[in-house]
Amino acid sequence: MTSQTTRARRPRPNGVVLRAAAIAGAGLLAGGCDGPQSMLNPAGTEAERVAELFKVMLVGAVLIWAAVIGLAVYAAVVRPGAHPERHASALIVCGGALVPTVILGALLTYGLQLMPSLRAESDGLRVTVTGEQFWWRVRYTTPDGAEVTAANELRLPAGARVELLLDSPEVIHSLWVPAIAGKMDMVPGRTTRLVLEPTRPGLYRGVCAEFCGPSHALMAFAVEVMEPARFDEWLRREAGPATADAPEAGRRLFLAHGCGACHTVRGTEANGVVGPDLTRIGSRHTIAAGILENTQENRERFIAEPDAVKPGVRMPGFAMLPAPDVAAIASWLGDLR
Ligand code: CUA
Asked: Most CB within 10 Å of its CB: which of 79, 199, 295, 299?
């Protein structure tokens, strides 16, 4: 290839690469706006405010960026060279003090006036969520005072304000459901509070937003927002003992191998409180705290080698059990609804 053809062709591939990068970048940006874990696709009152705040901040940032670039272009291209001292002083006072004070003051006022409505009281239902290593203990307190224990999943009625009381026995975690509300830390020795007001039924995803150990990134949960009547029916059912149509073999093996020392399955002798309550694990969307789909294969995998799925998990592996025993336990658990 001669140097002439090289020179003639060089801009072309660069242009193609730039265009491809721009399209890919735009695609990634647009992809981030959707999905069950996006704060830009809000399904809750607080997330709507946060999305609104984001848009206002974005417009503000773009205007400031345009003004700064405009000034730089003016100084470098339109009117290069020295400016009179009077102009320079005016620029420092306006651009360095006046304009930033006005803009930051306006944004602060706007941000602060959003806060009181986000801290308003709940409508009655209260849920205590405890951050464990690396899963979520969930306890619903109904308006009449009854307590229902579950794990790794949050179900909420649409249109109601639900108060979450957050704590943690060991290290700091942080609960965040981006599509519904902003995050709140879970601090050992304290109880923090977050009010969720989902507006749209659907399935969303929450995460742990504070580094808490080797499986911090593997600590998520499904959030199902339900029509209020369906939610009431679900909670009533959730409060009762487990029901399963599966053969008794799974239940017998679960108890015989000591699983009940750490897990509770209401309606059986299993009443441990170290690990997640498994009373209706078959009805949950995921297992292992939002990490695996709730399938027979994945339940078997987690029972045999929990540490391979979730490094640092407290549960010991049961790979030494005969495979049919693991399968029977996994199948019985899958049937607990
Ligand atoms: Cu729990 Cu990060």
From this structure: 299
